[in-house]
Amino acid sequence: MSPNRIRVPAVLAALSLLTAVPVASASDGARHVLLISVDGLHQSDLTAYAAGHPRSALAGLLARGTSYTSARTPVPSDSFPGLIGQLTGGDPATTGVYYDATYNHALLPAGTTSCAGVQPGAQVDLTENLDRDQSRLDAGQGLTGLPGSVLGMTGNPRTLLNAALLPVDPRTCRPVPPHEYLKVDTVFEVARQAGLRTAWSDKHPAYEILNGPSGTGVQDLFTPEINSAAGTGDWTTDNAATQQYDGYKAQAVLNEIDGYDHSGSRRVGTPSVFGLNFQSVSTAQKLPTSGGRTGGYLPGGTVPGPVLTSALDFVDGRIGAFAAELRSRHLDRSTTIILSAKHGQSPTDPGALTRIDDARLLDGLNAAWQARHPGAAELVVHSTDDDAMLLWLTDRSPAATAFAKQYLLAQNGTGTDSAAAPKAFTHSGLRTVYAGADAARYFGVRPGDDRAPDLFGVTQYGVVYTGGTKKIAEHGGVAPDDRAVPLVVSGGAPRTIPVPVATTQIAPTILHLLGLNPRALRAVRAEGTRVLPALG
């Protein structure tokens, strides 16, 4: 078989997806854990889909596993803290990662080569901007024949990062790669220390952060760049393209189930801990339209529209393919599938949407600050605003943080609704603002923490900060739509556990399933993160 060839499991058509779902459980002594993050998926989406598709792979997971129906993601509900929480057992206060694009008051700006006397303060950008070439699906590796050859990407994406764009450690005057920025170790590192194989597939090379502080956690890390050029936009601007993109990562997992590396060209053995994220549901929830069809949910916010329906069907089919391949390789009874999501998406109801141009709000805040303090720098040094507002300030004094809070809560204006018609907003679209010491307390860190935002704004339901009309939902906030995600662990008789749990509990649960000590993880020890109930 030629390297990188995309192989569709021949057994898939012959097997019922329902009966193909693995049944390994903690008591069986699982030898493999396959973690699947369906970004954007809500618990309500999973419940409705399984009820409407009783022979689906997703219904099969529920029929042969434990479903935690009150699971919540960390805050902020972004991809980085969401996945890092699942794989470390910690919230941002412990992991030090609050979002994919943040600010650090102690590091030096990217590009600093002579560190003496340099004023600290640096953006920490863990997005596609770090790629050697973000316009290419291979992030600048230089493969020919893209996109079909993308499975030939390196399993060490650290080589695809532009070191000149990394913040600099003032103690060493060296760039800080993503894995060194993470404060705690990962499940992958603990597994490696036990002699187990690890693999993961995700959307940017910056996900090499999952290697953890040792830099060696993930042996095979496949990270095709989702924000690279694809047709007239990137892979997220059309849901059919996103499904094609997710298909490459799904094929990597199929190759790994078969005992190969992600490319399918080198036999290395099936990993003990492996998995991927799917982007198709998230894209379908955000896009107003795609391929001439309506994106998101239908009015009322409970029934998926045609684009989202297609995305759910696609993800279900790929999960069914994983289950069938595990069965065909006789790995079904030694493999536990864990299904969850890094984050949800808000709002589900298109009628609740209010889009607000956050750039205008922050320009106004900076102008008002400088008017009161002639000659002062702009107050906002970095912002990350999706459906929450995270601000890092140049002046962190109580007076400055109070000024920012009061200014934002005083701003009323006009945004747009889901049809791009004018829609009034109040208080900058914010419901509650935590600033200064209050923001530190909210996240559970000391005032003046180098990484935590100086202001965290909780939005009114339905508010999305964007300067245009290209999206109808986002994540990052605290609404149930952002945080109420599924959490299902395959194996054993069907059980529904309604007690509240956190997705950070996935990390110690993975180690428990593999017969390893959950307390080997620093974040688990620091936060007392428990194995999921009924599995411990």
Low-confidence stretches: 1-19
Average predicted confidence as pLDDT: 95
| CATH homology superfamily of the largest domain | Alkaline Phosphatase, subunit A
* Domain module count: 2
- State the helix count: 16
- Separation of the first and last Cα atoms: 42 Å
Number-wise, the strands total 26
Rounded to the nearest angstrom, the radius of gyration is: 22 Å
CATH architecture of the largest domain: 3-Layer(aba) Sandwich
**Within the CATH hierarchy, at the fold level, what is the topology of the largest domain?**
Alkaline Phosphatase, subunit A
Which class of secondary structure composition applies to the elements?
A: alpha/beta
Largest β sheet strand count, sense and barrel closure? 6 strands, mixed
Order of strands in the sheet with most strands: 12-1-15-24-2-25
Strand content: 15-25%
Shape verdict: globular
CATH C-level class of the largest domain: Alpha Beta
Helical content, roughly?
Answer: 25-40%
